[in-house]
Amino acid sequence: MTGIGVVVIGRNEGERLRQCLQALAPGASPVVYVDSGSTDGSATMAESLGAIVVALDMSRPFTAARARNEGFARLLADHPTVVYVQFLDGDCELAPEWLATASGFLDAQPTFAVACGRRRERHPGYSIYNRLCDIEWDTPVGEARACGGDALMRVEALRQVGGFDARMIAGEEPELCVRLRQASWRIQRLDAEMTLHDAAMTRFGQWWKRQIRAGFAYSLGASMHGQPPERHWVRERRRIIVWGFLYPAILLALAWPTWGLSLLGLLIYPVQVLRIARKMHGRPWKDRLAFGTACMASKFPEFIGWCKFQRARRRGPMRIIEYK
Q1: 25-62 as b/e, with b when 16 or more CB fall inside 10 Å?
Q2: Which of 18, 187, 216, 223 has CB atoms 3.0–4.6 Å from 114's, for a disulfide?
Q3: Does domain 4-202 have CATH number 3.90.550.10?
Q4: Which residues of the chain have pLDDT under 50?
């Protein structure tokens, strides 16, 4: 489509990357693929499918933000007239009508910098972790405060705010959206199919590591934009510390003097699960309970992520946390 370029990032995505690139209708838009040290031949395959390939310098830490920035720079160097850029993860497949729908919206709404849509999990039935991802992607339609890794963005707006912050090992899109909103740009979540995502999460350890990464991202985001009026991710960071450490630590400390009665306070966790589940609508109760349980259980690995951030901030460097 005229005026639209695509930046795909990935590392060892294999067949998922092939599906991603083949769904982009070769020749319809220029495609840049940024490879973060793949060892499965991803770069060669992408080139054979018509993508411009950028291989990241392996001497510097990989981050999705860095990959997107370098892909964006290469896209503009080769195609300086591009007006919109679609960012896409290599494990995602773009819906056929998405680019037309999203670019049409941005054409008609010049104050909006970002259009995102419904990201669905490709195999939600494969595991509880995949299903949790599918629930997580189902965000409200309308004007939003942030987007995810798949989104169509206005080149003018990205240039104005300097693109992604390469220091972010996760949560780089919401951080970018903070700066876009501060520059008076707006973000819209459209009621339209955007991408199929393949989390390929089948083990508890993968989910645990993903939540550690989330805790790190919340902590980093709050440290960067936590001051009023934005207070970016301050509430999320506070919940991590309270539910993931302070509250259970206090109950455990009181267990001896109270003959273990203080441990009854742990019942507040299932109560919180029910509270979260009751707020969800349009899904079966088993999904609501699973999501509520995951939300509360995630506070423990997220607290580990908070600890990792504190250590990295003092000693460095901040390295990407991968779950697959």
Answers
A1: eeeebbbbbbbbebeeebbebbeebebbbbebeeeebb
A2: 187
A3: yes
A4: none
